[in-house]
Sequence to fold (497 residues):
Amino acid sequence: MKIAICSGPPTTGKTSVLRHAIRKLIDKGERCAFLKIDVQFAEEDEQLAAEFGIPTRKVYSGELCPDHCSVMVLGDAIQWADENDCSILLVETAGLCLRCAPYVDGGLGICVLEATSGMNLPLKVGPMLSLADVTVVTKGDLVSQAEREVFRARIQDVAPMTQIREANALYGIGIDPLVEAILETPDAHDDLLLRGSPPVGTCTICVGKREVGWQAHFGVVRALDNQNFYRGQ
Amino acid sequence: MSEIESITIIGGRGKDGEPEPVERIDLQMGNVASIVGPTGSGKTTFINDIEMFADCDTPSMRRVLINGERPPREFRNDPSKNPIALITQHTTFLSDLPVGEFLEAHATVRAASGKHPDDMIERTIEFANELTGEPVGLDVRMTELSGGQTRALLIADATVICDTPIVLLDEVENAGIDRTRCLELLRRQRKVFIFVTHDPRIALLSDFRIVIAEGRVMKILGTNEAERELATKVSRLDDVLSRLRDKLRVGQALSGNELEGTLA
Fold:
């Protein structure tokens, strides 16, 4: 079974891109399963199940980072898609904190960015973009060509290896190259590894200590005028 | 691909699925064409198809050929090789960079070997300032430009920085720019210009008009001799209106005989 994991900031059109891709994949005889990972609300699973009659699921990550959550549940999800006799598992996750990416080695990593988010966005989103195999740029019809070209060049600066594909997610124009990339992805092997290194996630803030100011915290902390330093035993 | 000589649009189908009456349009370097048709008839879709090098993969099922052949993928994948510049109806910039920095960013992306970005930026500003009455400075933020300045800058950017053989302009008349000067400057370039337009002046100064209705190209009208003669009068009439507009804009009162002798 092939695995494609789609990430990108909120409202960029991840689901719209995947919807058009799913339609084309089904036309080519593929059997798709869809998993949505979001923090506290999602209905994409219901929409896609109603539209295509494919197996779909969602997970609310709640207090867990959605990308961490994706790492936790992906093994089970592959088994679930397998039991449903699917040939492709598509995972959509809300990449929120910009410090890690949900892509796995052996699967396709798709990043969806919108051209309207400003020319500096590619410089800000980190591994979600730099580790993606394919970057789909949506909403290009809403900005000038000049801005679109600069946006694109900045993506290529950050992620020299990513294939950039401009798409109109409303009408499904420009989706074919993404579909080809999904179909060219080899079947995933058993021991999947997260592609990038996750950031340190065991700090005192992450575990629930809410006091403001580094003096209240332990471990790797930082003050306004300093770089990170270690505080504790 | 060697020098670009022509662009061809192979007809697809309209909104109702009916095939387009015009099956093939060939445009050669130096051609100026206007796209005419009612609002919502599919004019913007037509130039978007061209801009995306449609290959039966857009709802219209049109195909675009360059020099009679399917264009290479690099046209879409590498902005520095894309032979098409599109000036859309969107005249607002999202970027709040100063004009100079933005042009530098774009010039660097587009810079073909042998071209110097600084020189391109200077010529772009000069070109833009020939089109607009309010000079554009390098230090102004893009978001602070007026509609006319933005449109002038975009046309200049497409002509100087992109310097592509094919330029698409979507309703250029909407902005406060000097259209006469614009057409004059653009006509000097050996490029294909395709205007989406509701403006009689631009339509009549084109070599031909591509007529669109209900998402289909219905026919191609060559500008005939009578229309060419008419075009001069239309331009004069348009100039009269432009002068009136300018007077109103600067707060002048108009006399009752402003139009006298001009409508003959």
Helices of chain B lie at 43-51, 74-77, 99-110, 117-131, 147-162, 179-187, 200-205, 225-249. Chain B touches chain A through 28 residues (CB under 8 Å). Chain B has a mean pLDDT of 87.
